[in-house]
Amino acid sequence: MTDLATPPETHAHVPLRHPRLPSYAPWLVVGLAAAAAALVGLTLGWSLTGIVVLAMVLHVVGLTVWSRAVENARAATDRLVTSLVWVALTIALVPLVSLVLKVVTEGAAELNGRFLTWSMRNVVGEPGGIYHAIVGTLLITLAATVISVPVGLLSAIYLVEYGGQSRLAGWIRFLVDVMTGIPSIVAGLFAYALFSLIIGPGTQLGLGGGVALSLLMIPIVVRSAEEMLKLVPADLREASYALGVPKWRTIVKVVLPTAMAGIITGVTLAIARVIGETAPLLIICGSTDSVNFNLFNGQMASLPVFIYSSYTQPGTNPEILKGMAWGAALILIIIVMALNLIARLAGKFFAPKRGR
Amino acid sequence: MSTTPTETGSPKRRLGDLVFANLTRAAGLTILVTLAGVALFLTIQGIPGLTAGPADLKGHANFLGYVAPLVFGTLLAAVIALLIALPLAIGVALSVSHYAPRSVSIVIGYLVDLLAAVPSVVYGLWGIGFLGPRLVPVYQWLADHLGFIPFFSGPASNTGRTIMTASIVLAIMVLPIITAISREIFVQTPRLNEEAALALGATRWEMIRLAVLPYARSGIVSAAMLGLGRALGETMAVAMVLSASGIVTWDLISNTNPSTIAANIALTFADATGVQRNALIASGLVLFVITFAVNFGARSVVARYETGSPR
Lengths: 356, 311
What we know:
By secondary structure, chain A is mainly alpha-helical.
C-alpha cells in the first residue's frame, strides 16, 4: 500500500494497520485472570484446583473478548486457539507433576536400608522389604532382554540388509508394527497358555514372565534397531565389500559398530518400557513373599506386582503395606527414569564420530 | 552355488554368509511364528472356556453373555479416554510443533516422554490413591446438577473409583502416544504451504487450519486409533482404579461400573480355577482380536498415506 502517487482522498481514512493488542497482552490477562480467580476462590473457600480452573476459563474468555473488541474477529479466533493450545498443554502436564510429587512424598518416607534388603518372608505386622521384588524384577527383565535382543536385532538386520523390499520383509515390518499394540495382558495369557501346554496346567514361573515381556519388547527393539541400521551410510558397506570382506563380516564388523549407539539406546528404552509391566507378570509369575533366584521354578515376586497386590490386598495391616506400595512405586520410577537417562547418555557416549 | 566355477562368474557363497543370512531370516520368521503362536495358544487354551457352563461364568448362561458386558465396558472406557485425550494431545502436539519456541518445545518433548515412561501400575496407584478421592466432590456436583443426563444419573460414587476416573487415567496414559505421532506429522507439513498461507495474510490458526490440519488428517486418525488400541488393552490402571461389578450401564460416576476385559482377567485370574481360567483366556482372545483389528486398521491408514517414517 505504499503508493507512489498521493492516495485518493476517499481512502485516506482507512488505516494501514489494524489496531493490535500489545505484545504483553496474554501475560497481562494471565495475571489478571489468576488474581481474579484467586480473589473469588479464596472468598468462596474453593480448593486450588477450582481456582486454577476458573483462572484458565477467565484467561481464555478475557483474552478473546479483549481481542474481539480491539482487533477483529479473525484475530480473536487466533488468540482463542492459542490460549486453548497452552491450556491443553497445562492440563496435560498437571497429572505428571501431581503424580511425581505424590509418589516422591509418599514413597520417600519408606526408603531405608531395611526396605531395600529385606524380603516379606515371615514379616507380619511390621514393615518388611522389597528385596525379593527387586530381585524378581531384575531377573525377569534380564530373561526378557536375553530373549528379545538377539531375535530383535537379527530381525532388524534381516529387514535392512537382506529382506529389502521383499514380501516377507514387508509382512514382518507390518506385523511388528501391529505387535507393538498387543495388550500386555494378552502377552501374559500367551505365556501362561504356552507353559501350561509345555509343562502342565497352571504352571507359574519366572521364565514365563521373561517370555511374556519379550513379546512386548521385541517389536520395540526391532523398530529402533531398524531405524539405526538404516542410518548407516551405504558408503561404509561398499568400502568394506570393495576390500573383499564377506557380507556377514561387513555387517558384524562395520555396520553394527557404527549403529551401536542407537541400538544400545533403543534396547535400554525397551527395557525401561517393559520393566514396569504388571499384568503379564501377575498371570504368569504369580507372587511370593520369599526371594526366588530360580527363573525356571516357582512363583517369583516383582516390583509392579508387589505394588499392585500390597495396595489392593493389604491384608491385616493396610497402612503398612500401602505405604510400602508407595515406596516400591518410587523405586520403580527411579529405575525407569535411570534407564531413560542411561539410554540418552549411551546415545551420546557411544555415538560414532560422524554426527547422526 | 555354481557348478562350473569360473574366474569371472558370481562369487562363491561363503559358508559364513549363508549361515548368517539364514540366521537373520530365522529371527524374522520367529516373529511371524510368535504372532501366529499367540493366536494359536490362546485359541487352544480358550476353547474349553467357550463351552463353559454358568457355574464357571459368574452365572452367565453362555460365553457370549459373559464376555458381552466386558466388551461394552472395554469400549466405553477406551472411547471416553480417547475423547478426553485426543483434543489435549492435538493441543500439546501443536504447541510443540507450531507454538512454543524451540527451547521450550524440547522441554515439553522430554516431559511428554516422561509421561510415557511412568509404569501403568504407578498410574493405577495414583488414580486410586490421589485422583479418585479428589474427584468425589465433582461427581457429587455432576449427579446433583446434571443428573438428568444418563451419564451422570448417579448416585455418585463416594470413593471416586468409577469408570470416569479410570477413563481419565487411561486418557493420561494414551496422551503421549497420540501426541508423539501427531507431532511427527505436524512437523512434516510442507513449509511452503504454511508460508503461502501466512503470506496471504492468514493468522496462525488459519494457517494451521488451512495447511497443517488437512495435511495431517490421516495421521491424526491413525494416531487416535493407536491410542484407542492402547486404551483398549490397558490393564492395571483400570483394574486398580475401577470398582467393577460387571454390569452394563451408561452411568459413568456411580459405584457400580462395567468391567473391562483386561481388568477382569487381572482381577479374577489368580482365584480362578480350571475352566474359569479357560474362559478368561478366551476373553483375552476376544481382546486380542479387537485390538489387533484396531491396530491393523490404524497401520493400514498410516501405510496408505505414508510420507516417510510415521514414528
